[in-house]
Amino acid sequence: MKLLVTGVKGQLGYDIVNECKKRNIEAIGVDVEEMDIIDANKVEEVIKDGNYKAVIHCAAWTAVDKAEDEIELCTKVNVDGTRNIAKVCKELDIPMMYFSTDYVFDGQGENEWKEYDERHPLNVYGQTKYEGELIVEALPKHFIIRIAWVFGVNGNNFIKTMLRLGKERGAVSVVDDQIGSPTYTYDLSKLVVDMIQTDKYGTYHATNEGLCSWYEFACEIFKQAGIDVEVTPVDSNTFPAKAKRPNNSRMSKGMLDKNGFEHLPAWQDALGRYLKEIEN
């Protein structure tokens, strides 16, 4: 099985290609230099010339606050780029896997979001990912995987930021009124490679198990890293951001259960393994 993985320089694309290598699955990773997803002709050329059996589409605009100012560019990447890939996948009748986000929901309440709940994005980024979902779900062979609070070796993330600030300042303030589940791209990549080899198409939620606030996440980071940092819980209004964030990112794993896929390990366990990985 030969796979094309977009966004190979990002946290998730990097880990998916590595996971494929471990399993002797041929996976070609591309980024903007090899295949600018905004360029429809280039997308068609790369996918058709490669004779791929599926496309795993990780490339995306993820700068959430910047998207509020750069609406056109964010839309080009997340909507038009996704459409360009989907068009070729449909023509070749090959599966497309697309990564989405908890940001497609309005983030209200305390109930888990189910995979097929109504979507009401709060910000530009969420809207573009929602529009991408609509494009992909029109394909006969599609996987949509919603993820949240992502961390991986290859790139910047909340954990690396906390470790840096903790060491520099010895004290941090972190919001405690947004609840969700961290997602370790190493764990996610295993599920992704399992899933892409099936025909169990549909929309899934895949995060590490367990819930926490960003404050609780930060406390656990410092505890496991063995760093003495004073962590103060604050309301999200303390840090006004351009893009509104969801308060509730609890996500049901019903589709994973229905189709016999294993849940990812607990987020605390994932964090411990990640800290060891970045130490090395």
Helical fraction: 40-55%
Alpha-beta classification = alpha/beta
- Radius of gyration, Cα only, in angstroms? 18 Å
- Main sheet attributes: strand count, strand direction, barrel closure: 6 strands, parallel
Q: How are the SSEs placed, and which strands pair?
A:
Layout: E1 2-6, H1 11-22, E2 26-30, H2 40-50, E3 54-57, H3 64-67, H4 71-92, E4 96-101, H5 124-137, E5 142-147, E6 150-151, H6 158-169, E7 171-175, E8 179-180, E9 183-184, H7 185-196, E10 202-205, E11 208-209, E12 212-213, H8 214-225, E13 230-234, H9 254-258, E14 264-266, H10 267-279
Helix pairs in contact: 1-7, 2-4, 4-5, 6-8, 8-10
Could you describe the 3D structure shown?
α1 crosses α7 (185-196) and α4 (71-92) packs parallel to α5. 42% of the residues lie in helices and 19% in strands. The chain is an alpha/beta fold and 280 residues long. α5 links the parallel β4 and β5 (142-147). It contains ten helices and 14 strands. The protein starts with a strand and ends with a helix. The strands form five sheets. Strands 2-1-3-4-5-10 form a six-stranded parallel beta sheet, with helices on both faces. The protein is globular, with a radius of gyration of 18 Å.
